[in-house]
Amino acid sequence: MAAMPAPGTTAVLALLPDADPLLELAAQVDPGVVRPGVPAHATLLYPWLPADRIGARDLERLRAALVRAAPGGGHVPLRLTEVEQAGGFVGIPVPELHALATAVRTAFPEQVPYGGRFGQDPPVHVTLSLDATAPTAADIARRVTGRLPIRAEVSAVHVVALTPDGWHGLAELPLTP
To answer: How far is CA 133 from the centre of its chain?
Structure first.
């Protein structure tokens, strides 16, 4: 099982409420494979800066990187079309968010995504299960596949921080200039 991050850990996320029913579906198969209280999202950078070190300049640097990488309309249309399964992991690739993730990672090169476990520029995805048994992951993947494709749109990115009470929003950064 993946280690729980320490309070004060932050992440830069694209929330995908249109994919929340897929997390609910995974939880119906096995509630233990999803993180309670965490909505469907694609992670652009995790971990980001420690929460107690984030200042206005950091948020502006982040916002500037996002706006430069965002399409002219300030929103990114997405299509969730396929499920990937590897062992106990089930996820949905979100290649449309790769440019935003690259922009964030380039703006903060000292923050290595996932501590380097998946390379310097891992693919962006929505995680539906972690640490499931292989049969459970296969069941989740099969059920989710039947609910795809899903169209969605991202017009803002969120910075969240882990507290003793769970993940809480610190900032919402619109993709418009």
So the answer is: 22
